[in-house]
């Protein structure tokens, strides 16, 4: 087991965002987390990355506890998040953004040439300001920057946000290549079809609770829609 | 005409001192969005410390005290940031302002206690009176010229660190997005400590040069802070060369004002500052348009 989240709670002030959430990821597996807005998908990824404090339960990565570690320590353990909305460093060039991913890395699996090989369009734009790039290109920078940290587990929060469907297809095709290189993936995805076709296994969250967990190709749309919209406990 | 040229020349040289004052303020604001109200008092503190170091070690020239002062202030800046200022940073920008305001009061009263209210000066020796003749009967003072050279070199060095080194890249990235920088492996509290330490190095240099140029006492800090603020605002927030340019513009305005009437010296500087606020509120060289 690469990642094991068990019975984790998370709060924003008095508001509880996650209730006893458990999730497992095996090495080289691709997971998708689906669910409506505000279901806790981003909170879960941010809890694993160390951005959101958790209460109770445990988060273990290759056997070691990640609870209480700072984000800059967690990234050196091999867990990297591509944040929602990309969050690029807007005063840095494309190449500088990628180099920031390598700030504290261990290992040399992903280098600038390898990232440029994965995203040839970024190479042509390496010295441009990231703000001059299209949304899809910016998402490529965000993924490339995360890869530069040599993650064993790459978490992507809502890659499709604000992108044209054809661009989303491109991005997922590239993620497929990343996956083949042996990186374990967890994606948060609003588009259920996209999630089911990309992932091995799917988790559905509703109001901070896991309402469905299953192998992607065995799930029917009815299962998913019940977990997505259904009353709590009905799934 | 010659008198105006003389005013402009001395204004440029005086302004480079203001640029030196302001570079640390600009760096700290640019990276941490932290307004250090005690900045001027730290410059005065460094001038007094240079005096004390000279007294203890017997160093002839005040510049030599920088050998001790620079590492000392770097460590002081790092610890101050980690232990006092980092915990205050957050969405509420008033907290760090209040804390640095408190530090300002502490430094002023500490200096009053330790060094009395007497006015002091660092002795620059022959350098203070030496000058070089220029065509047209003008002359340029050796010490003001050295100040200009040091200001340009120091800001050039800071610029080099920010734009070519790994730590500089991390400083710029953190300035853009603190949380994401942390997720990329930047230990942001430590990096803030480094940034504050670097700013304290510029404060140490500014303290020694100011102490040679003018006399100072324990309560001189706030007036120097005003010049630093004005230089930063005129130049544009977050741009170091802009800060130097802002300092020089302020210096020229003061020198030309003084040429017409001594009473106009300070006023002309403030008027130029207000004009910059009205016509170029983002400064002359803003780092970027967001």
Notes on the protein architecture:
The complex is a heterodimer of chains A (235) and B (290). Chain A has 235 residues and is of the alpha/beta class. Chain A has a single domain, classed as Rossmann fold. Chain A has 9 helices and 11 strands. In chain A, the strands form 2 sheets. In chain A, strands 7-8-9-3-10-11 form a 6-stranded mixed beta sheet, with helices on both faces. In chain A, strands 1, 2, 4, 5 and 6 form a 5-stranded antiparallel beta sheet that branches. In chain A, helix 3 packs parallel to helix 6. The longest helix of chain A is centred in the C-terminal third of the chain and has 16 residues, at 165-180. Chain A starts with a strand and ends in a 6-residue tail after the last helix. Chain B has a single domain (2-279), classed as Orthogonal Bundle (ABC transporter involved in vitamin B12 uptake, BtuC). Chain B has 11 helices and 2 strands, in the order ααααββααααααα. In chain B, a hairpin with a 5-residue loop joins strand 1 and strand 2. In chain B, helix 1 runs antiparallel to helix 10 (240-260), helix 9 packs parallel to helix 11 and helix 10 (240-260) packs across helix 11. Classes of the chains: A alpha/beta (235), B mainly alpha (290).
